């Protein structure tokens, strides 16, 4: 009995840094800009490479765990995560930090399925397993939600590298405890890994996203070639999955309208959560001069709403059917985006927090209703495959949230900024690319010109942020109509 709860403690301990690392950098953007002189494009890669790599590898790493046992998978994943944390903490360039974050994603893709397999194999009693899963879910959601606050606290007292260094003692402790406490498991040697399929998917995703990001600033025949290769690989991957007897992703599940719609909901909910946090933390620090800790505290109501929104969403799900709950959740998200688009975050604090609470609850409604719908719509023998697809959707949504919101912001910022006419050409080019670059090059100017450039960048960012939030509200409104139509009463009859 004692060993069982010790294993749960180990699982919680290793899962915490994995969930935190998805959002902890949101308040570190100015610090990273100062230390590494990141371009806007490099910043997006630093932020989203972790979730994108994780999304592509999480399914085959789960299969690897079945093959070698979750203990070995956890040890390997934790080791990679620890080494990558050290590399990230001491990165001296954007390329090095992006590579380290990518390897963090590889380690996290191993750790996540290992923790779930550990719970499944350790807690054989259904009631105990549900309790353990509840603890696991709370740690995952809470870690991601409170990542910006933790990042802000660390940056208030230490250099940015400490954000990654705090992972190292946790990893060392986990490795020791796992080695001596967790029993060995027999692996299934016949379990297919699908590793090559995963590499094809990851390569396709990264090539497509690279093309989209880079084409915002320049477009040439080489980018067109990369996009064509990426799309071809994606088509090849889908066709391979449909023809395979042991596919990495069971696309047949997506034929069910409830499941396919719920996957879309999970992705867009994560896009909203991560994208909004990223943009708001930049505005608070770059425009209004908040410290990282002050920015984390400002976002706290949003984090709390996500963390406690689960019980409220559960009540709605128990009382009403999926169709009205999901539709209202998306409408609430649309309304909160529109409300936030018309809010001054520097002076209208109460209004901002109220809209953030509404958004946090609506995001949680979308996440929980999508999970409940998927689990209730698949046969028992397909539950694991469906759950794996949803887990992948969460990580893909987190990566896409950074990409989509970041690119929209970059486009509107470039269009909105009105630069002082006396700026040198090379400084004008950098300043019009992103607010981070504008703040960097402003340090090279005399005080009066520096002040003018910072004001121009701040005004352009605020205007762009409002435009992005307004467009997001419109897209969520359209999505709510789509969900109402897609989740027909016939499709959701219970």
TrEMBL record:
InterPro entries in the cross-refs: MFS, MFS_dom, MFS_trans_sf
GO MF term set: transmembrane transporter activity
The entry's keywords: Cell membrane, Membrane, Transmembrane, Transmembrane helix, Transport
Gene Ontology cellular component annotations, sorted alphabetically: plasma membrane
Segments forming domain Major facilitator superfamily (MFS) profile: 7-491
Domain of life from the UniProt record: Bacteria
Localization in the cell: Cell membrane
Transmembrane segments: 7-29, 49-66, 73-92, 98-119, 131-154, 160-182, 194-212, 218-238, 258-276, 296-317, 324-341, 353-375, 396-418, 468-487
Mode of membrane association: Multi-pass membrane protein
First and last residue of the signal peptide: none
NCBIfam families from the UniProt entry: PRK14995.1
Name used for this protein in its record: MFS transporter
């Amino acid at each position: 009995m004692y060993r069982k709860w010790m294993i749960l403690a180990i699982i919680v301990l290793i899962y915490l840094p994995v969930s935190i690392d998805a959002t902890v950098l949101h308040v570190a953007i100015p610090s990273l800009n100062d230390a590494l002189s990141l371009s806007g494009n490099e910043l997006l890669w630093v932020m989203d490479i972790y979730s994108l790599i994780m999304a592509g590898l999480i399914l085959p790493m789960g299969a690897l765990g079945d093959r070698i046992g979750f203990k070995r998978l956890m040890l390997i994943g934790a080791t990679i995560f620890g080494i990558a944390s050290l590399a990230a903490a001491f990165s001296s360039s954007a390329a090095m930090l992006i590579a380290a974050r990518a390897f963090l994603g590889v380690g996290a893709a191993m750790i996540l399925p290992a923790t779930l397999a550990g719970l499944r194999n350790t807690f054989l009693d259904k009631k105990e397993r549900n309790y353990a899963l509840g603890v696991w879910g709370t740690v995952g959601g809470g870690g991601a939600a409170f990542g910006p606050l933790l990042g802000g606290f660390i940056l208030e007292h230490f250099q940015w590298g400490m954000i990654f260094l705090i992972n190292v003692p946790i990893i060392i402790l986990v490795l020791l405890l796992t080695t001596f406490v967790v029993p060995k498991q027999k692996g299934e040697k016949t379990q297919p890994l699908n590793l090559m399929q995963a590499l094809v998917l990851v390569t396709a995703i990264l090539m497509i996203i690279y093309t989209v990001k880079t084409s915002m600033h320049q477009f040439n025949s080489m980018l067109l070639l990369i996009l064509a290769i990426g799309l071809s690989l994606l088509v090849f991957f889908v066709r391979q999955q449909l023809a395979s007897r042991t596919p990495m992703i069971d696309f047949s599940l997506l034929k069910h309208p409830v499941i396919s719609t719920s996957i879309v909901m999970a992705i867009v909910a994560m896009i909203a959560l991560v994208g909004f946090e990223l943009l708001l933390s930049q505005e608070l620090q770059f425009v209004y001069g908040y410290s990282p800790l002050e920015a984390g505290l400002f976002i706290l109501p949003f984090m709390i709403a996500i963390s406690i929104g689960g019980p409220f969403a559960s009540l709605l799900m128990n009382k009403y059917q999926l169709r009205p709950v999901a539709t209202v959740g998306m409408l609430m998200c649309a309304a909160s985006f529109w409300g936030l688009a018309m809010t001054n975050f520097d002076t209208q604090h109460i209004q901002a927090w109220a809209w953030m609470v509404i958004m946090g609850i609506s995001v949680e409604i979308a996440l929980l209703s999508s999970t409940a719908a998927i689990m209730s719509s698949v046969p028992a023998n397909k539950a694991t495959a469906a759950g794996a697809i949803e887990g992948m959707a969460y990580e893909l949504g987190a990566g896409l949230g950074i990409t989509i919101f970041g690119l929209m912001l970059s486009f509107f910022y470039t269009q909105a900024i009105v630069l002082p006419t006396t700026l040198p050409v090379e400084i004008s080019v950098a300043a019009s690319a992103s607010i981070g670059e504008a703040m960097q090059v402003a340090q090279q100017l005399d005080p009066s010109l520096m002040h003018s450039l910072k004001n121009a960048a701040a005004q352009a960012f605020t205007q762009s942020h409002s435009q992005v939030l307004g467009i997001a509200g419109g897209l969520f409104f359209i999505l709510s109509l789509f969900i109402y139509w897609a989740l027909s009463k016939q499709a959701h009859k219970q």
